[in-house]
Amino acid sequence: MSLFADFHTVDDFRQRARRRLPRYAFDFIDGGAGSERALARNATAFARVELVPRLGACHAQQDLSVDCMGQRFEVPFGIAPLGLCGLVHPQADQMLARVAARCGVPFVLSATSNTPLEQIADALGQAPWFQFYAPKSTSAANSLLDRAERAGCPVLVVTADVAAPGKRLRDLRHGLKLPLRPSLGNIVTTLCHPHWAARRVLAGPITFPNLAMPGEDQAALSFSSLMAWQTGGTLDWATLARIRERWPRKLILKGVLAAEDAQQALGLGFDAVVVSNHGGRQFDSAPAPLSMLPAMSAGGIPAASLLLDSGVRSGEDIVKAIAMGAGMVFLGRPFLFALASGGEAAVEHLIALLKQDVARAMSLLGMVSVAQAGQWREKGMYGIC
Ligand SMILES: Cc1cc2nc3c(=O)[nH]c(=O)nc-3n(C[C@H](O)[C@H](O)[C@H](O)COP(=O)(O)O)c2cc1C
């Protein structure tokens, strides 16, 4: 019997993660910006959507697979880029990448991963999708783009919603930086998690190997200089156009909420946008991405170019996003909760759960295949209460 037989929802994993991680590590994952209204809005947006079942479909040939960015995946959901995962487990990046490859799920490696891009590519035998923050210096940006191209990354995801660092109150209150502020609270919560602490100490200091320039000491790149590096660039449309010219493969803009911005990005030659508010971690007043999706879809942006994340917590949420126009749906925190709960086996269990729940929702709705969701959207099968 699976070790996770009693885990039926993302919240089951979240509760386990809360117990298994020091408080500052759990809060880094779980928290959002400001008073966490955007975080709450993401959940409310999904709760308000109703799906109308249609009868008479034959489900013998149900098919969850989907084409996205020229690749075929088993399911219509994937793992969003997650930086600083080393706070959950020293090998978190490799573990997530491995499970994703085994399960046929898209995986985006963060620019601020704690494992070098090339190491992930070697371990998998193929390069992952790579997420990119445009740094202040053009030479640093070009060198990272060249590196991702040399490694063979088939897709570059440019994150645009970081014009300023999000004001994450939980992190500020814990004094979360590297090395960690040695406050009494932080010391006590670390000592209360001896397995986590021992693993972390044995693995050595957390570094950001994708961001170090040649000759730079990676360990010296502090969390605050990292935040400045990733948010200090001028990511204007001219810079995005230059990235489009330079990057020869599929290109996605992440963190888009306005339909006009989505149209402009696609007009520049981006292949897709991720409609996202960074999981409510950047701007407390940002709308829920799900609420912005219908306008983009109605404006003629095809599902193949509309990806979505932020607040997705179940198979039914995935189906709701697809019903409203998304061609692929990403989740962030749920995979880190699973990883903290029980490593790769737990992440695999979460993927299986989501897959079953997507299949169940499709059956109850009368939707036979994700690839044919277009016909199903035309029937106007969602409502907002
Ligand atoms: C711990 C953590 C780290 C993240 N790091 C990055 C990152 O390095 N780059 C990025 O583009 N987005 C990052 N994100 C945002 C996710 O890619 C994604 O947009 C968000 O988690 C989706 O919302 P959800 O967590 O509600 O599923 C991070 C999110 C979390 C929770």
Which small-molecule species are bound to the chains here? Answer: flavin mononucleotide
- Name the helix and strand elements from N-terminus to C-terminus, one letter apiece: HHHEEEEHEHEHEHHHHHEHEHEHEHHE
Proportion of residues in extended strands:
5-15%
Main β-sheet description: 8 strands, parallel
Helix percent reads 40-55%
CATH topology: TIM Barrel
Second-tier CATH architecture: Alpha-Beta Barrel
* Contiguous uncertain segments of 5+ residues: none
Number of domains: 1
CA distance, first residue to last residue:
40 Å
Rg from alpha-carbon coordinates? 20 Å
Number of helices: 16
Outline, from the CA principal axes?
globular
Structural class: alpha/beta
What's the CATH class label?
Alpha Beta
Mean pLDDT, rounded to whole units?
92
Q: Strands of the biggest beta sheet: in what spatial order?
A: 4-11-10-9-8-7-6-5
The CATH homology group name: Aldolase class I
Family: Belongs to the FMN-dependent alpha-hydroxy acid dehydrogenase family.
Pfam families: FMN_dh (PF01070)
EC number: 1.-.-.-
Keywords: Flavoprotein, FMN, Oxidoreductase
